[in-house]
């Protein structure tokens, strides 16, 4: 497990060593790259950074969603140039094995509810009870006498769903007591905006742009500083992925260098997303996070 965590760190550092060098001149070419991946990465930074990159290099990046799993697997199958993901590739999975995963930022899983919901803080234990159907009414949390409507992402391999199961339950097959299931994070977040009794977990990088309440976890707000310092518990890397055998692999590496460079990191910070290299110490704390999840699960 340690090996898996530090391998992407080495890739990020290796690419960043070249970030100060000039990007190769486009030479008037009309090259276009395509990106597929998780909606959280798309909303958090990808759209803005792709626009800036085109202004600097003339290289256009077509952006589509589809989720973390699609991003990884279409890269592994060499169908797209760049993948975006909020989880690492699955070990020993042939559908994902050819994706090179490069961490570029830190995101956090945040608990969201409607702005008019009076409950503003949960513990990890309360979150587990809610998602396993053992705590079902807001009045047990100091709120109104109303059912807790649990909104979740579809499937176990979505970026949010996979990391929630890993970080909170230490069980990738954990089932959730869901009131409603959504195909992606966007519709889920939108549904919470209109349901005062809803609760959901999403990525902070996209949820902060919605009209929702970002709940405290163990008394900590999911602020930029708390995520960067590891004070907020549920953080995870955001990745860009490419295929070494891809037709445009070298151009994709240059784009990743740009993301790790000064201008790319400025875009991340402007969107409230922590650049990966600004908080490398979170790799170690992530090990502690996983250990704590296993202990709480009795493993």
UniProtKB/TrEMBL annotation:
Residues 45-259 form the PBP domain. The keyword Signal applies. InterPro entries: PBP_domain (IPR024370), Phosphate_ABC_transporter (IPR050811). SUPFAM superfamilies: Periplasmic binding protein-like II. Coiled coil: none annotated. Residues 1-24 form the signal peptide. It comes from the Bacteria. CDD domains: PBP2_phosphate_like_1. Keywords: Signal. This is Phosphate ABC transporter, periplasmic phosphate-binding protein. It comes from Thiohalobacter thiocyanaticus.
């Amino acid at each position: 497990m340690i090996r898996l965590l530090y391998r992407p760190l080495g890739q990020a550092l290796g690419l960043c060593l070249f970030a100060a060098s000039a990007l190769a001149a486009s030479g008037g070419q009309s090259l276009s790259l395509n990106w597929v991946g998780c909606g959280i990465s798309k909303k958090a930074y990808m759209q803005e950074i792709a626009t800036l990159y085109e202004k600097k290099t003339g290289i256009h990046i077509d952006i589509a969603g589809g989720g973390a799993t699609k991003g990884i697997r279409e890269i592994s199958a060499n169908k797209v140039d760049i993948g975006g993901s909020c989880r690492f590739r699955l070990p020993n999975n042939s559908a994902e094995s050819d994706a090179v995963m490069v961490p570029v930022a830190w995101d956090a899983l945040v608990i969201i509810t409607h702005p008019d919901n009076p409950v503003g803080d949960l513990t990890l234990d309360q979150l587990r009870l809610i998602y396993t159907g053992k705590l079902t009414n807001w009045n047990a949390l100091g709120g109104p006498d109303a059912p807790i409507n649990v909104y979740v992402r579809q499937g176990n391999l979505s970026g949010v769903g996979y990391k929630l199961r890993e970080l909170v339950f230490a069980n990738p097959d954990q089932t959730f007591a869901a009131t409603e299931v959504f195909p992606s994070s966007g519709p889920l977040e939108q549904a919470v905006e209109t349901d005062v009794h809803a609760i959901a977990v999403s990525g902070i990088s996209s949820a902060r742009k919605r009209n929702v309440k970002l709940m405290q976890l163990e008394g900590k707000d999911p602020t930029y500083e708390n995520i960067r310092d590891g004070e907020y518990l549920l953080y995870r890397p955001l990745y860009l992925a490419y295929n070494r055998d891809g037709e445009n692999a070298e151009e994709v590496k240059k784009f990743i260098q740009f993301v790790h460079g000064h201008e790319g990191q400025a875009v991340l910070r402007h969107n409230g997303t922590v650049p990966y290299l600004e908080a490398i110490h979170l790799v170690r704390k992530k090990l502690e996070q996983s250990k704590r999840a296993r202990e709480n699960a009795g493993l």
